[in-house]
Predict the 3D structure of the following.
Amino acid sequence: MSIATVTKIPRPPKEQRIDTIVESARKVFCACGFEKGSIEDIAKEAGIAEGTIYRYFDSKQGLLNEVLRRHYSALFEGIQQTLPSIEGPGNRLRYLIRRTLVTISEDRSMCGLRALYAGQSDDKLPSLSHDQNRRMAVLMANEIKAGMKDGTFRSDTSPSLVCYMIGGALELTEHSFMRTGKAIAVDNVTESICRMIHCGIDAIDATTGSLASLVERFEHAADRLDPV
């Protein structure tokens, strides 16, 4: 009588198990929402026992934190690799605006998670999304300052005010996308934002005709962002 040899299947490394859990949490939160998505759902998606999740994360909130942390980490790693290769502060500023719009348009469900995460913060504990928004604002402000220095932008420009304007336009775009699901024309919106900004900070004085054109472009952009 022969005895069958039992081959023990090796367990995946710890890092791989964590990656699987986090990716499963992202899928569940995006599909069901944070409140409705459960640890049980995440465990089923990952093909593991619920108890395995608690070996690495103490709560569902901890999982959301890691999902968002990785999301922002991937965004800024890509920016750090690309930004230095772009010539000119104006072009780099345009890239940062476009890259943000691409991130928004890639996944509508992630927009909801970012908004949820931002809403959970307070003055004593700023959320990761607020921290990353500030990080993006710093990158944009640096390019505006570089443009002021080399003459691309007016020397009396307020970098913080310009960043507020850009941030507001991007936030409204994301809000409209979340509400309507209408696809974002990334290149068109990028150019609309850049033109409106540049007409205010370019070293060349704006003419009456260019100002009228600016108003018209702003009205068209507003219609696209919040269709009736």
